[in-house]
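Quick one: C-alpha cells for this chain, please?
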Amino acid sequence: MRKVVVFAVSVSLMAALAACGKSPEERAAGAALSAITGNKVAVEDDGDKVTFGEGDKAMTISSGDSARLPASFPKDVYLPADYEIDSVVDSAGFTMVSVRTGGDLGDASQAARQQMLDAGWKQSMAATDDDTNHLLAYENDDRTALMSFSTDSGNGVVYSVQLSQKRQ
C-alpha cells in the first residue's frame, strides 16, 4: 500500500511540474541553483535567462534571443544606432548591457563621448589601449556609467555599458 501512495504522489508531482511550462532541465537547473544560493532562482529560455531572487532584489541575467534592453534603460545613455544585444544583467541600482555593432572602434567611442556630454554627463575618465580597447567613464547627479569598447575580431565593435546608481 505504501508503494502505491508513493507512486501516486510521484506521478502527481511530475504532472504538476510538467504543467509549469518549463523543460525538465530548466526546472532542475533552477532547483540546483536555488539550493546552492539559498534564493529563489528561475531558469528560462533553455538557460538563456536566469533570475536570482524575486521582487525589487531580483537580478536577471539574459543572453541570446532572451536578451532585451531593460525598460528602465535611461534614454540619455549612449547606444549605437544599429546594434545587436549580446547580454544583459539587470538588478536594483545596476544594469550592464553588452552589444555588438558595426563600424570603427574610434568612431563608436567618439560618438558615445559626444552623446554623453550633450546629454549633460560629466566625463570622469578616458583610457585607450592602442586601437583595440577604449574605456570611458561618466557621471551625473544620480548615476555613473562605465563604457568599454573593443574590436570584434575585425568585424565591428563590442560595446558594454555598466550603469550604477550613486550611493547617497
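Helices lie at 2-18, 24-37, 105-118.
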